[in-house]
């Protein structure tokens, strides 16, 4: 009896171990050749080099891949669907952009996986399998151009082409940690590419190296040589960074420090994009759909307008095939193809025109808008949030800016957060593609230096949160100060100083509030603290000079105003104060 019981225990133990091993095997994704990025390998070889003294082909020695929406002579374009492939013939002509790249010296080595019918931005495909994200294997690679992003991230090719309608290049670029460029709408010809939603479609490309990104761009955009033009304005969209699940400071400080180092602090600015768009795009009010009271009602309305255009134009292009073939199309596609009224489509087209004009007015020829590319880290494979309406709408809020305005945008990797890639995006006006490519070429190395410095500094998340909370307290203090609520402002500035006592502005601002209460000694002490931290803070010298004048320390006050004038020779406040004191006390 005992031996029988023991035997049964061993059997149960063995079954338990086998079950654990089987579960572990299921959880581990099997390794696939090329990370599952390709559906077909091919070779399109460039022409021979021209004889000297002519220049070599601009893309010599580079190889690239193309998303499976680009036609290649003799190959069936499957458009992310086996059923599409079965019902279409092989292409008789190669896509114009592919031919241009090959003629430019690059070799095309294969066609890559895209989301079914290039509809989604997740990167999952039931027909060909989901490509494995090299930067985060347990996370989605992003779509629709998932395979192209993966091929670059894995180092298989130097660059690759993708389709970006509602984020199909920018999102996988962010999730896989590579550079991704969406050009201005309609500046790259789309001959020989299956359309998704023509008014939103753009041919984009991925690269790990900014010089490769720029070389490809110069060829596709047919740009002649010109000197690099420096940006004069960088606008940080603060409200957009509030949407991000990654701490805003983690994303923005790398950009701000890089910009300050290369171009100076004076080019940095901030914008509340929600308020700006609300004042400039009246047609979005017709698309509020019950979100009029939302903090991001205009961005949500812009996202909704993009989604309307996306599904409306997709239906125009492909509903006839879906109805005739009746394929087992993914539910996320069919479920999004309900009818919408003509007025909704017209409002969405109006929004496109208005948002292009609005961003053009903000950015002009020399401005860059900085936003998060996506909400945060890439979602896990098969995660529930991928089918969440909130997730898709909020992600679309960010991608809709370039899709609807037709502006150019580049995704810039910023290292990792929680072991996953994170990024920001830079946006320039429609037609500012050369300017944006030149800017990323100039700033990229410095951004990566700042990313490395941030990683090495190992700043704790608690400290980062304290710094962010200090900034929030300062902003509240500024609001109270403008309303002349001096004591309330002092309390907020004091809170900011407790959270981070190494910022001169906090002391200088509190000094200004103390002056409002006629507390001159406290104002003088705060200004001295500010100057100890930053000897070049002009406002602290002006405020300490004012406090010392009121305390009767006239010589010291003149010294402070004079120092402010040395730092800022055109400062009228300092000049007037010095003249006044010299007349009163010659």
UniProtKB/TrEMBL annotation:
Keywords linked to the UniProt accession: Membrane, TPR repeat, Transmembrane, Transmembrane helix
Gene3D superfamilies with a match to the protein in the record: Amidase signature (AS) domain, Tetratricopeptide repeat domain
Keyword Transmembrane in annotation: yes
Record-given protein name: Amidase domain-containing protein
Transmembrane residue ranges: 6-24
Domain Amidase: residue ranges: 56-214
TPR repeats: 470-503, 538-571
Signal peptide (residue range): none
InterPro entries found in the cross-reference section: Amidase_dom (IPR023631), AS_sf (IPR036928), TPR-like_helical_dom_sf (IPR011990), TPR_rpt (IPR019734)
Pfam family membership, one: Amidase
């Amino acid at each position: 009896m005992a031996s029988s019981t023991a035997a049964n225990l061993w059997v149960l133990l063995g079954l338990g171990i086998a079950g654990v091993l089987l579960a572990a095997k299921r959880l581990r994704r099997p390794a696939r050749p090329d990370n599952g990025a390709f559906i077909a390998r091919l070779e399109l070889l460039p022409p021979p080099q021209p004889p000297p003294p002519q220049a070599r082909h601009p893309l010599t020695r580079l190889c690239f891949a193309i998303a499976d929406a680009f036609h290649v002579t003799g190959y069936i374009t499957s458009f992310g669907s086996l059923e599409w492939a079965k019902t279409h013939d092989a292409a008789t002509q190669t896509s114009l952009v592919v031919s241009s790249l090959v003629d430019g010296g690059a070799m095309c080595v294969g066609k890559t996986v895209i989301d079914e019918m290039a509809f989604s931005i997740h990167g999952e495909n039931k027909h060909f399998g989901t490509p494995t994200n090299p930067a985060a294997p347990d996370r989605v690679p992003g779509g629709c151009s998932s395979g192209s992003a993966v091929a670059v991230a894995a180092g298989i090719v130097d660059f690759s082409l993708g389709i970006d309608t509602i984020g199909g290049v920018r999102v996988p670029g962010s999730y896989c940690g590579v550079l991704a460029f969406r050009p201005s709408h309609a500046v790259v010809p789309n001959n020989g590419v299956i359309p998704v939603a023509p008014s939103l479609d753009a041919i984009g490309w991925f690269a790990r190296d900014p010089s490769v990104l720029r070389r490809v761009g110069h060829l596709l955009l047919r740009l002649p040589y010109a000197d690099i033009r420096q940006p004069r304005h960088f606008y940080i969209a603060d409200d957009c960074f509030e949407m991000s699940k990654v701490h805003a400071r983690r994303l923005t400080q790398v950009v701000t420090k890089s910009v300050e180092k290369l171009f100076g602090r004076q080019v940095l600015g901030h914008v509340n994009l929600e308020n700006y768009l609300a004042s400039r795009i009246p047609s979005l009010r017709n698309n509020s759909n019950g979100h009029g009271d939302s903090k991001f009602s205009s961005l949500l309305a812009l996202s909704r307008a993009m989604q309307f255009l996306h599904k409306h134009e997709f239906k125009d292009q492909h509903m006839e095939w879906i109805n005739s073939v009746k394929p087992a199309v993914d539910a996320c596609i069919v479920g999004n193809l309900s009818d919408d009224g003509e007025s909704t489509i017209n409002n969405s087209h109006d929004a496109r025109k208005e948002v292009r004009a609005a961003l053009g007015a903000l950015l002009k020829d020399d401005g860059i808008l900085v936003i998060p590319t996506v909400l945060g880290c890439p979602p896990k494979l098969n995660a529930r949030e991928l089918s969440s309406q909130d997730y898709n709408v909020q992600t679309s809020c960010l991608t809709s800016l370039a899709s609807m305005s037709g502006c150019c945008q580049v995704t810039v990797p910023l290292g990792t957060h929680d072991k996953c890639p994170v990024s920001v995006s830079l946006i320039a006006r429609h037609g500012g593609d050369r300017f944006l490519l030149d800017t990323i070429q100039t700033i990229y190395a410095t951004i990566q230096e700042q990313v490395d410095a941030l990683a090495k500094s190992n700043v704790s998340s608690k400290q980062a949160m304290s710094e962010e909370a200090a900034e929030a307290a300062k902003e509240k203090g500024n609001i109270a100060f403008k309303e002349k609520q001096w004591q309330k402002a002092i309390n907020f500035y004091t809170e900011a100083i407790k959270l981070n006592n190494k910022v001169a502005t906090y002391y200088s601002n509190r000094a200004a509030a103390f002056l409002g209460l006629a507390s001159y000694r406290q104002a003088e002490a705060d200004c001295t603290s500010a100057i100890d931290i930053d000897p070049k803070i002009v406002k602290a010298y002006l405020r300490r000079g004012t406090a010392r004048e009121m305390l009767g320390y006239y010589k010291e006050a003149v010294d402070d105003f004079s120092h402010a004038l040395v730092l800022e020779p055109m400062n009228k406040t300092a000049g007037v104060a010095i003249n006044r004191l010299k007349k009163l006390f010659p």
